[in-house]
Amino acid sequence: MIPINITTPLTEKVRKSLKAGDEILLSGTILTARDAAHKRLHDLLSKGKSLPVNLKGTVIYYAGPTPPRPGRPIGSCGPTTSSRMDPFTPELIKLGLGAMIGKGDRSDEVIQAIKKHKCVYFLAIGGIGALLSTKVKSARAILYKDLGPEAVYKLEVKDFPLIVGIDSKGRNIYAKSGRKKK
């Protein structure tokens, strides 16, 4: 299969054109955010405040990068388990989040939000964080710097290899495996 080249921000047209199982090479700007950053974003929203970032068409990568080696913009940046963000994800999707990158299946609530708002969930292969870091051209912490590697980073990526895990219609590669949801 020849990978599909896409760039950020992800338009609804692009998101709707992707199918579960498609191989992707993603280029452009993405944000990292893990558990602690998601909790802080959720807390802002629960207080009626607006987010410090515009999520429209944005891609959030569930990763906590390690410090860079000399001459590199970032250290290892492999995906973390996505289900840990599931309690916070539907509200972010509702605000226009275009896609998420992580590993593992998602809850029924997240899948319903993906379908309703035409979002996409990409899978990055776990265990190859050092290789994935070579696709990062620049990295800068932009929010919650006190969280260290769990701060929100703005990354510029080129040909970042991904697989569409759940497409905008809710088709899910995990469902194809015969695995039953709990």
Account of the protein in words:
The structure is a single chain. The chain has 182 residues and is of the alpha/beta class. It has one domain (4-169): Fe-S hydro-lyase, tartrate dehydratase beta-type, catalytic domain (fumarase, Alpha-Beta Barrel). The chain has 6 helices and 7 strands, in the order βαβαβαβαβαββα. A 5-stranded mixed β-barrel has the order 2-3-4-5-7. β3, α3 and β4 (99-102) form a beta-alpha-beta unit. The relative contact order is 0.23. Mean pLDDT is 94; it is low at 178-182.
Quick rundown:
With 182 residues, this protein is α/β, with parallel strands linked by helices. 24% of the residues lie in helices and 26% in strands. The protein has a single domain, classed as fumarase, CATH 3.20.130.10.
Task: Please render the helix and strand layout as text.
Blueprint: E1 4-7, H1 12-17, E2 23-32, H2 35-46, E3 59-61, H3 89-94, E4 99-102, H4 108-117, E5 120-123, H5 129-133, E6 136-143, E7 152-166, H6 173-176
Parallel strand pairs: 1-2, 2-3, 3-4, 4-5
Antiparallel strand pairs: 2-7, 5-7, 6-7
Question: What are the key terms here?
Answer:
182 residues; disordered C terminus; fumarase; globular; 7 strands; alpha/beta
